[in-house]
Amino acid sequence: MNRRHRAASSSDRHDHVLLFTHGHSELAEDNSTTAYTFTEATKTMKVTVSIADLPSISYFHVSCPDLQDSPFRQRSEILWSSEDLVLFTVFLAHPAPMEYFIYRAGREPSLDLLSGAGEYFMREKVDPSQLAVVPDGAGGNFVLAAFDWDWLSARCYLHVFRSKRRSWAKEHLAPDFPSWMFTNRPGFCPQNVIVVRGGALGYVDLWKGILLCNVLEEPVTTRFIPLPNPLPGNRRGYNNGMSERASWVRLIRDVACTDGLTITCVEMEDLYRFVARTPDGDVLHDSDIDPSEEAGERRWVGWRLVAWHREVSWDYWRKGCVLHVDELGTVSLPRHPARTEPLPPNGRKPSSSSSRPTKLPLSHVLVFCPILCGEGVVCFLSKRDSYRDHRAWIITVDMRKKAVRGLTPYYDETPMTFNLTYLSCALKKYLKSESDGGRSLVVEDTRPHGKRHRLSLENTSSHSSQPKRTLRGSTMEQRKRYG
Asked: Is the confidence at residue 4, as pLDDT, over 90?
């Protein structure tokens, strides 16, 4: 029995939560997740995480209790999370670069400013969205790395900050990309970052593959792992190249490495059946004859989810779960409360008709954006009629048992943007209570566990029952159901 199956059979714990990536500036009560720091612009800054079990949403609160007015011009944004770390940015109201912070969960949560990071990214014109951190030995040292693809030269770089040296370096990478990388959809465009044991960050282009960068080595070493070919129903999205929105792939794919050793890739695919047309009646008029017309039509018959996994050292992928939507049966969509987070634009409340509980087959609901949340668990975003709806649900599915574990209603503030506003993270397992053997989460304890941390990094660097469905993608092709 390999490591993956041992882990799956030995534990049913679900230590991952689904974190809303836009922080809330309202002051939250202290709990076991609370941490503090101090900056000149924000004075005391406080971070508190409201942890909730799946499929409920967890929230990240960033506030400045010393200030009467918020110093932020917009919500803080979580860029990345792995294990006990969260990397986020705040947008200050006065003219200044964005500030970046690292939050560490644990018995004594901490919050540290990455001084100079905002100025460096502005000066080097780096998009900080693909940013990640790896611990570097003991003493709180770390390596921060940001991926950068130069479209003009078709080269990739890594901007690396090493806390031991308190300085930045720009390293040119020479990955072993296969030749097919440049025949269609040229370039490498990572959508997320995973962490692999041994100090490697994996920059994931969900269409193509994973670029492993061992940032603890100098110079940084790289290795490319191709992802499985897109499923047949998704090939057109890949072959359309740059004409398709780069974020479209988030609707159908996700990649995660929850134990640092085994990489999992899941992909959704719409399934169709070809139905041939036969003339009605026994008479065929000359005016009805046109050989150029389609001899039939495609009818939508559901979707499937296919999971692949591999250990980092393998040179192949192994197919795991194959799940069809009909295997999940009927679900009861919970009603939306009059007020829930995140709120719809302008605080709009749902209409009275939207509050009626609805029971229907899951195949009658628009399901998209699979998000891997630990071993064998995947969350989906779902809507009743179209992507443009603000009323939505999060569905948690156990892939091994092929069962729906729960549904939670929420309001989608950014419909049709396809930006991932929910992030799977493992903070929960670092917030366990000692008194119950680590089985429960200490979130009801309101004592001020958080410590105030001065700027430990301040010298780092200067510088209907069946709704109208649409094909996942920009084609917006009408689905037609079979039977």
From this structure: no
Cα–Cα dist 77/72, whole Å: 11
Q: What is the pLDDT of residue 246?
A: 58
Neighbours of 62 (CB within 10 A): 25
Please indicate whether residue 181 or residue 177 has the higher confidence score (pLDDT).
Answer: 177
State the pLDDT confidence band at 457, using cuts at 50, 70 and 90.
very low
Q: Do the Cβ atoms of 424 and 16 come closer than 8 Å?
A: yes
Q: For residue 250, count CB atoms less than 10 angstroms from its CB and return exposed for 0-12, middle for 13-18, buried for 19 or more.
A: buried
Does 482 fall in a domain?
no
Instruction: Look up residue 133 and give its amino acid.
Output: V
CA distances from 290 to 71, 299, 304 (A): 68, 22, 36
Tens of pLDDT, residue by residue over 276-297, are 777 677 777 787 777 777 667 7
The verdict on residue 9 lying in a domain is: no
Q: What's the CA gap between 145 and 143, in Å, rounded?
A: 6
CB 297 within 8 A of CB 321: no
Is 388 strand, coil or helix?
Answer: coil
Question: 472 or 420, which is more confident?
Answer: 420
Q: How far apart are CA 482 and CA 62, in angstroms?
A: 49
Report the distance separating Cα 229 and Cα 208, nearest Å: 8
Q: What is the DSSP string of 393-458?
A: EEEEEETTTTEEEEEEEEE-SSTTS----EEEE-GGGGSB-TTTTT-SB--S--S--PPEE--TTT
21 falls within a domain? yes
The full length of the chain comes to: 483
Among the listed residues 59, 25, 65, the one whose alpha carbon sits nearest the alpha carbon of residue 45: 65
Domain range enclosing 446: 14-280+291-453
Number of domains in the chain: 1
pLDDT at 74: 79
Judge contact between 407 and 450, C-beta under 8 A. Answer: no
Q: Identify the bridge partners of residue 330 per DSSP, sorted by sequence position.
A: 361
Q: Which of 106, 125, 102, 124 is nearest to 114 (CA)?
A: 102
Task: Tell me if 332 is assigned to some domain.
Answer: yes
* Residue whose tokens read 């559901």: 302
CB 143, CB 215: distance < 8 Å:
yes
The C-alpha atoms of residue 400 and residue 322 are separated, in whole angstroms, by: 9
